[in-house]
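Recap quiz, item 2
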Amino acid sequence: EAGVAQSPRYKIIEKRQSVAFWCNPISGHATLYWYQQILGQGPKLLIQFQNNGVVDDSQLPKDRFSAERLKGVDSTLKIQPAKLEDSAVYLCASSPDRSRYNEQFFGPGTRLTVL
Amino acid sequence: DQQVKQNSPSLSVQEGRISILNCDYTNSMFDYFLWYKKYPAEGPTFLISISSIKDKNEDGRFTVFLNKSAKHLSLHIVPSQPGDSAVYFCAAEISGYALNFGKGTSLLVTP
């Protein structure tokens, strides 16, 4: 079974530029998550989708971050404009559904450096 | 506000000995707890989990213990192997919602 795919793996941009990340979850997984992991911290949820609907985006900085999951499969996360503090690893995860006791499967992440 | 805390940033253990990684949480609504293992440049990988209705779950060399009254869980690895060297994240959730992660503990198993 193929895992969660993410691209690009690395991205370096200057502050105030825009960037987009892509995620392809495990086939058939209804729930998709985007996490931000700052160096030395655990992953922090940015947004959770159930199929193509948003379940939780309470921690997403909506003035600069946006995410979509068209057709309930792939997802993109965009930052516009980027700030220095956005430097982090952005992890995508998926799980079969929102029922109880589902572990989440993580992709390799995209490491973003904002200069 | 950190709801899941791993107070030991690092741990060093000799090969063959027991590794004990600890985790504390503050939210009594959490009903599912997981441990993830992370190697450099990879995403976290699920290791073992426990629901709040249990106090112990075993999977091979890995055992997770849950003490709900103390809001504490621990991961035991017996015996420890050099390949276990990684960062271990404790995570907790209210089922169906996002995981709340600790900051991680870096385990080094020396030969």
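The longest strand of chain B covers residues 86-93.
The interface with chain A takes residues 4, 31-32, 34, 36, 41-46, 49, 51, 89, 91, 95-99, 101-104 of chain B (CB under 8 Å).
End of item.
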